Amino acid sequence: MPRVFNFSAGPAMMPEAVLRRAAEEMADFSGSGMSVMEMSHRSKDYVAIFEGVEMKLRAALGVPEGYAVLFLQGGATLQFSAVPMNLLAARGAADYAVTGFFSKKAFQCAKMYGDVRAACDTGDYYAIPGQDGLALNPDASYFHYCHNNTVYGTRWPYLPETGGVPLVCDMSSSILSEPADVSKFGVIYAGAQKNMGPAGLTVVIARKDLLDAPPLPGTPDLLRYKAQAENGSMINTPATYGVYLLGLVLDWLAGQGGVEAMAKHNARKAAAVYDAVDASPVFACKAEQSARSMMNVVFSSGSEETDGRFIKEAKARGMVTLKAHRATGGIRASMYNAMPLEGAERLAELIREFA
Ligand SMILES: *Cc1c(COP(=O)(O)O)cnc(C)c1O
Question: How many A from CA of 78 to the centre of ligand 1?
């Protein structure tokens, strides 16, 4: 069976070279006589891997000195709680930009912990409000937003200006897909299963001075950034194999030319599919031009039956997992870093032919 082009929103495609290297190293990692997944997380071999991955991630994203990098578990969804538990008490209030499915979940979750307000929620998740559309509380502990809205296929085209209020960003579906100036953020978090590796690993990048804020009472150590930072993300057993795979992905990424090269590659793929959709008499994309996602292209014919036929035809041609999220319906082509240009081109070709 040849490998398919998997357009899944997550868990998503991995670079084939990474899978092959993992397979080669599976039973005997570097002459250790064991698999990485069999190693004690406290062993010398494993600690070397773990520390190496942190260094590679810092290099790939240009993470400044004053930031902690944490390798946690629980997905981005557990961060919906961890963020307010760690940061809300600093000044007692927080702002959330509600621009899609996951940012709404993050907002609803955070509201349970205190004075949390929506900085925007137009209900139209196919657009991103401009800076003028954000109602900001200058005394907030932080401003939370989701850089790339995985479900609706939108992306913030600008960095929100909050006048010194720390930016907290859910980058689950866009981290490492384009450059980001980490120094502009208070906290960045992301589940690994879109652009970084397998599910089960969550990366948190946090400005160290924010870790001194008092956590909410009852915050468990596993969710406390400060405690995790002090213990090198090893209060308990971390997602050992997932971190190792992230390392392989980062080696692959460096070989591709890093995040700048990735951004160009991703822009080409997205343009191929958007151009085909825009030219199609059958399909349309609801996401506003200026806010279109490079990672998740959401489109539809307006007819469930027609979309279903397209998805079936795509599958017959080796392109799978194109059904969109139930919140939007239609078709979603998720094209993270590991999706080759050929996958995007083949999809564009089918969009043209289908007409
Ligand atoms: C996938 C996704 C999530 C949920 O991630 P889990 O790891 O399943 O908790 C949250 N936010 C964004 C932007 C996502 O794409």
Answer: 10
